[in-house]
Amino acid sequence: DGGITQSPKYLFRKEGQNVTLSCEQNLNHDAMYWYRQDPGQGLRLIYYSQIVNDFQKGDIAEGYSVSREKKESFPLTVTSAQKNPTAFYLCASSKVKGRQSPLHFGNGTRLTVT
Amino acid sequence: AQKVTQAQTEISVVEKEDVTLDCVYETRDTTYYLFWYKQPPSGELVFLIRRNSFDEQNEISGRYSWNFQKSTSSFNFTITASQVVDSAVYFCALSESEAGKSTFGDGTTLTVKP
Q1: Residue B57 at interface with chain A, using a CB cutoff of 8 Å
Q2: Which residues are bridge partners to B66 per DSSP?
Q3: How confident is the model over A72-99, as pLDDT tens digits?
Q4: Which helix H or strand E contains B112, and what residues bound it?
Q5: What's the CA gap between B34 and A25, in Å, rounded?
Q6: What span, in angstroms and rounded, lies between the C-alpha atoms of A43 and B43?
Q7: Using the beta-carbon criterion (under 8 Å), do A48 and B101 form an inter-chain contact?
Q8: What does the alpha-carbon distance between residue B83 and residue B88 come to, in Å, rounded to a whole number?
Q9: Of B47, B52, B6, which is closest to residue B25 (Cα–Cα)?
Q10: pLDDT tens-digit map of A12-31
Q11: Distance spanning both ends of chain A, measured CA to CA
Q12: Cα torsion for A90, A94, A100, A103, to the nearest 10°?
């Protein structure tokens, strides 16, 4: 079945370490997104990419970095510069870029930094 | 700037009751799309419905129905004869940019008790 795979499901890191969250999709979708979810809050956009080798900052990009070398993959690196990295991270994709396309989500990665 | 407000943080009902989840949005654009997503305890958001700004026709799908009113900037979601499996966090989202970025409300946690 087609879908979005995020790994790992749970991730623990020490403060000061960079960590990379994986996101792979086999839906042949053009656009991919990273959202952050904190308890009791909605999703906030970190980065998005509409095409391979191109990506744009979302609303809370500071302390994060991404790459889009392949259509299927959109990894997110949480750097040591991110002041409050503990959160639930969701990767999403949409068939085409544009406001009309619904998002398809992965199962998320719960990152805990101590 | 676009904004989505879900004023109900938590709702608790008993099975078979009807329940309405409220969503109010703000946008300056005349062309936009509204979405509802469901997030079960597993964490993955699931797309439920999409509405564009030019289509105010209400929709019913099984036990679900949606009421879109541009005059009040609202896009409410009703579950009829609720079931325990409906327990989840429900998000309303607005997409107005061609980049496909969505703004999410903070979500409403629905608990359906047997």
Answers
A1: no
A2: B59, B77
A3: 999 999 998 888 999 999 999 998 777 7
A4: strand B108-113
A5: 24
A6: 12
A7: yes
A8: 11
A9: B6
A10: 999 999 999 999 999 999 99
A11: 36
A12: -30
Chain B residue with the nearest C-alpha to that of A51: B99
pLDDT at residue A103, rounded to an integer: 92
Position of tokens 């305890």? B41
DSSP string spanning B41-109? TT---EEEEEEETT----EEETTEEEEEEGGGTEEEEEESS--GGG-EEEEEEEE-STT--EEE---EE
Residues of A in contact with B106 (CB under 8 A): 40-42
Residue given tokens 């409050």 in the structure block: A84
Q: Residue A50: its chain B contacts at CB < 8 A?
A: 99-100
Can you point out the beta strands (E) in A1-108? 4-7, 10-13, 19-25, 31-37, 43-51, 54-57, 64-66, 76-78, 87-94, 104-105
Give the C-alpha separation, B86 to B69, whole Å. 24
Q: At B77, is the pLDDT very low, low, confident or very high (cuts 50, 70, 90)?
A: very high
CA atoms within 13 A on the CB side of A66: 30
A107 closest CB neighbour out of B32, B42, B52: B42
Cβ atoms of B45 and B30 closer than 8 Å: no
Q: What are phi and psi of B6, to 5 degrees?
A: -115, 100
